[in-house]
Structures are given as structure tokens and as C-alpha cells.
Amino acid sequence: xxxxxxxxxxxxxxxxxxxxxxxxxxxxxxxxxxxxxxxxxxxxxxxxxxxxxxxxxxxxxxxxxxxxxxxxxxxxxxxxxxxxxxxxxxxxxxxxxxxxxxxxxxxxxxxxxxxxxxxxxxxxxxxxxxxxxxxxxxxxxxxxxxxxxxxxxxxxxxxxxxxxxxxxxxxxxxxxxxxxxxxxxxxxxxxxxxxxxxxxxxxxxxxxxxxxxxxxxxxxxxxxxxxxxxxxxxxxxxxxxxxxxxxxxxxxxxxxxxxxxxxxxxxxxxxxxxxxxxxxxxxxxxxxxxxxxxxxxxxxxxxxx
Length: 305
Hints:
Layout (H helix, E strand, L loop, with lengths): L15 H5 L8 E5 L4 H12 L3 E6 L2 H9 L4 E6 L5 H13 L4 E6 L11 E2 L2 E2 H17 L3 E10 L25 H25 L5 E6 L2 E2 L9 H11 L4 E2 L1 H4 L1 H8 L10 E3 L2 E3 L8 H16 L4
Parallel strand pairs: 1-2, 1-4, 2-3, 4-7, 7-8, 8-11, 9-10
Antiparallel strand pairs: 5-6, 11-12
Helix pairs in contact: 4-5, 5-6, 6-10
Family: Belongs to the short-chain dehydrogenases/reductases (SDR) family.
Pfam family, one: adh_short
Keywords: Oxidoreductase
């Protein structure tokens, strides 16, 4: 797991620069959510270095623009607070108003293991931010996604901690019970199911567009800022230093899916360490994916405008 390379020619120790070496993204426009720190900032840096115009989003426009200014290349920044439907819709409108066609959308932003139950519009906050917010953004931007565009959704191996029901459709607000890691796992398995159903819809329409989900690896980033320090210490001790990826290595799989010609046409898959991997069995269930899509559409339709 920690050494060697897979069929793609890349593996655990490959970096975002490694997987994009020799790839020209000149003329491409790529949107990256959560561009201002961690994997999002590294993804922005590397893709801009390869010639793409990167539209970065963060919770505020200032944070997004500052992130863009910190890297070399062509960037722009927009506000997109994923837990705020009005902010997401405003971001969609701003991208459309720019007149740019998107070649890639990277749904990178996320929150993890909130210690206490929080909600947004009646939905548990991790599920809303990590899944519903990105669902709104991605589906809202399909009108400006290139005919061969790619949607890249950052999930996690933590999807394996999702509840046995996969998605607790009868308790989306986590009122009956709340566990930080189960809730996070539910949001991450939702990411995989979203990518699967989106890929199926692309294929059914005859589109060349693709959608894939991925596990970036275990990386020390801002994502874990909410974790109890004791829990974090135990988790890191169990993982060990060899298990921790650098940010450059952590950003490799999403950059690989966004840019590498070797994955053109690959869709509906789950990737880990730049290679196709197998997620939990229910994350591959097309009926659950369809049910989640339909339920998410209902949630979005009821949100304030």
C-alpha cells in the first residue's frame, strides 16, 4: 500500500507535480472548491503551474483571491460557502457570468468530524456541506461544463465508517443519534454515490463527460481542525509517520483525475493513490445512488432563495 506504483504508473508516494509532469493545461479552466488551504491550495498551485486558469472558491471571496495571489499562474477567486444555498447559487451565477466554459470541476472542500451535532436547513452539517452544497454547485454548473468535461469529487476511505444503512434517509438531521465519524463517513459515502449517479447520467445521455470520486490519503491538513486533540493524537499514533502523506502527495489523485490523459473516458469509479480502488459495497449500489440523488433534489428544491 505504501510503496510501488499501480497500473496508472503512479502510486502512494506520487505527488501532484509528478502526476501532471509534461501535461499542458493551457486553455483549460478548472474550478477548485476549498482553494485556500491544504489540498485545495496545492491543487490550485499545480494546475495553474501547468497552464490552467483556476477558479478557486473559498468561504469568502477575499480568501479565494488571496489564495490565487499566493501561487504563480492565472487564477480568479469566488466566494462559495457550501452550507449557504444563497452563496452557492451566487457562485454558480458568477461562473456563468464570466463566460468561461469549465473543463474540470474539483469538489475538494469539506469539513470533518464535528465534535457536536450541527445542522444547516435541518440537515446534519457535514452531510449538507460535503454533499448537498457540492451537489448544488456541480449540477448548477453542468450547463457550462465542456462536452468532455470532468467532475472530480474528493471522498475518503472514511466512507467505510458510514452507518450500516448507508444514508440515514429517515434521520438526515441526526436527531436520533450523532457520532462525529459516522456522520463524516455518511457524507463521504454520499460523495461516492453522487459521482456514481452523475457518471450514469452522463453515460445515459451519450455524453463524453466523466465523474469520479477519490480518497486522497491521510494528510495533516486544516480539515481536522475540529477533532478533539486527544482523538487526533491517537489517530496519528495509529497511522504512524509512514502513513501520513505530504500535501503534495495528498493532492496527487485529484490532479491525476483532473489532468491526466490516461483517465480520459474513465467514469463512475473510485480512485485511491491514483489508481482505481474498490469502495464499500453499498457505495457501488446504483439504487442507493438514485435514491440519494432524488432525495437531494428534494432538499435543494426546498432551500431558501
